[in-house]
Structure formats: structure tokens, C-alpha cells
Amino acid sequence: MLVTVFCAPRDLPETTFALDVSPELELRDFVALCELESGIPAGEIQITYVEQPLKDPTRALATYGVKDGDVVVLRQADRRPPPTQSAFRGLPHIDFRSITVPGTSSSSGQRGQQRAPQSSTPAALRGSNPQGLDDPALLQQMLLSNPHELSLLKERNPPLAEALLSGDLERFTKVLLEQQQDRAKREQERIRLLTADPFDLDAQAKIEEDIRQHNVEENMTIAMEEAPESFGQVVMLYINCRVNGHPVKAFVDSGAQMTIMSQACAERCNIMRLVDRRWAGIAKGVGTQKIIGRVHLAQVQIEGDFLPCSFSILEDQPMDMLLGLDMLKRHQCSIDLKKNVLLIGTTGTETRFLSEAELPECARLAYGAEGREEARPDEMADRELAEALQRSIQESGKDEAILITFIFPPSFFHLISINTCMSRRELLTFSRVYAAIQGLSLHLSFQPFD
């Protein structure tokens, strides 16, 4: 069980530490553990639980009613005079505190002298950390000499890691002390809440939040130990293909309803001359981009197969090409993650998915050293939302239009709205034929375009 000890030394600041002990542990053994953690001699330790002093050293903690999560108070009593030898006249008096233990001071007096210069260090970590870890210089040296611990520090405590890597001991000490003081304050607040009025709603709410946060941290710790791969990122599925004879790296997205291509890629492939601008509009979802139009038929080469495909052309799309569900279903494609290949069912051809090193720059997990990690494609599109909407309104000269709505998953766009200038009859006829051929369900809603 986990027992929290609120330590009140005689000449030092109050602190807290936790001990994981057995309910059958005797009080004297518990006091010995407290001596190791607090540095207070066992003869001066007084343990109090629920305002009642625990006096019998041979009784187990469970017999005193101590349970998991309880808080006990450790007070440092006045120094007791050395016991007289009248009761044991035949035995010499042995002061066990004078025995030198490797890695510790030779006497309680020396131990007190060692603690005195460190009185400025918060006691929150002095009582709970192993010996020496409250020394900033030693801690800095240990972390710098251990790459694994340093990498964990970068993940879990970036401010302290930054101060450590700066090489400035004074800055590292300052950040370390600030974090220690903050943790000590939080621990004192937790102790105060545990001893607060049980009928106080605010106190109960804070205790509930503390328990919830503790469960979250514990869940994260277990996940990092048992399933560390869940904290990594996977690369998206890209394949090599050719459009109109030009090499393109295409993103395979079975969740996207339509196949799209960027304007820059369409210009490289010399198919901009085939763009039907009646299908111009705005693509809205996680971001917003302008749709220039649609290429109704183009030739895509995957390995040795030549497949017909249609594209919606987007103006500012950083991704060159996306193979959506319309083409994947049309050619009965299967994504085989075990073999890491895309299987074209109509021809039996397989093409492998690209590794991260082969991906286009916008699709790599590391966006480069020029600050591109702060400008991912979806965030870039969000910043261009107002500009794209304004351009669409200015370029739309029709009083009425037909809004064709395609539903996309979060992997690409939630919604694509195409503002077209086709007549109602032409669009209805085309959409029905297109839906029958592609096996898609087009949701048509007719409304004025403001």
C-alpha cells in the first residue's frame, strides 16, 4: 500500500514523501524507512495517525488502521538523553549512529552539517529523491552522461531539458528549484485537501480532479511501458505512379471519396488544359482550399498498368495527388499492410508503399529545420480560410448555383462544396450517370450561392 508521510522536522521546512509498504510492516521498520527518507534519527521520530500517536513498535501498520492512500504525520521530537545502563549493567553501551554506512556520513552530527548548507533546496525532493539527486551539479552531470535519461527528460520535462543543455549551471539550478518548489506546494495543497472538511464541495471537487489526474498519469505511464509504439507516428501510404507520363508520388487514402490533384502537379503533368472550370468551388473541412475545376479523364500508370482516372484540381494543395475511394473501388484495389503493398484487383499488379525517406517533403514526419514543423498542411489551410472564402465570393458571378456535397473523413476533408455554373438539367443528368458509373452516392442540395 502507498502511505504518504507529512514530515515536520524541527529546524527544516516541512516536506512530504510517499512510501510503498506492506500492511503487515511493523512500526519500528516503518520508522527506519522514514529515517532513511527524512534523515531524522529514529530515536527522534514520532508517528501520528488520525491525531493519535503510534507507540507500540512491534505492531503492524494495519492494526493501527492505516490503509492504502492514508496520510501519517512524522514529527521530530526533542533529543532524548542516552539511555542509562542501569538496566543492562553487563552490556556495553553502543551508539549505532556512530557506525559508518557506505555512501552516508559517519555520524548524525556530520549528517546535520551536510544538510545545513542545502537548507535553501526545497525539501520536497530532498526527502523523496535518492541521496545526491538534490545536488544540481551532480544531477546535471548524471543526466548529461546518460543519453537515455536525457531523451526521457526532453520528452517529459522540456523546460528543464533546455536549461540542462544550455550548459549554464545557474540557470539549470534555478529551473530545478522552481519545479521543486512548485511540486512541494502542490503536495502541501493535496495534504490540506485530504484533511479538509469532508462536506466541503470545493474540496471534494479538487480531490476528485487530483484523483482523475493521477489516474491519467498512471495510465500514460503504463502505456509508455507496455505499448511505447502507440506514442510514435506512422508515415502515410504513398506509391509511385505516372500521370500523363510524368512521375508523381500519390497518397493512397481509402477514406477520401474523391481523387484530387494540386494545381502545381497538374501543370507539371500538362493536364491543366483539360480542366473543366464549371466545377470550380471551395473545398471546406479541416482547412479551406479553392477548387479550380475537374479533369474528367486522365491516364495513370501504376507499375505496368495504365488506369483511367479523374481528378479534382485544388489550387493550394501541398500534396501532389491523392487516390480516393472512387478510383480504389473502380479498380478493386486492396491495401495489404502485412506485405506493405497496394494490390490492383482488376489486373493483379502490386506496387509497394514508399518508405519515409522516399516521401515528398510535406508528408515526412520531420518537416525540416526551416520551421516547417509549425506549418503543416492542415494548419496552412486554416490560415488561408478567410482569403479563400473572399476569393470565392468575388469570383462567383452567378445568382444561383447548385451545391454538390461530397462527405470526406478527417483524413482529408469533411466536406467539399463545388459551385458550378452548369444548368440544373445538365448537372442532374451528369450526376446520375456519374453516380451509376462510380458507385458513389451524391447528395444534391439546391440553394442560392451568396
From TrEMBL:
GO annotation, biological process: proteolysis
Pfam families: Asp_protease (PF09668), Ddi2_HDD (PF24669)
Signal peptide: none
Organism: Gouania willdenowi
Keyword Protease: yes
Superkingdom: Eukaryota
Keyword Hydrolase among UniProt keywords: yes
Span list, region Disordered: 99-135
CDD domains, sorted: RP_DDI (cd05479), Ubl_Ddi1_like (cd01796)
Keyword tags: Aspartyl protease, Hydrolase, Protease
Protein name, UniProt field: Protein DDI1 homolog 2-like
Domain called Ubiquitin-like: residue spans: 1-74
Start-end of Low complexity biased regions: 105-120
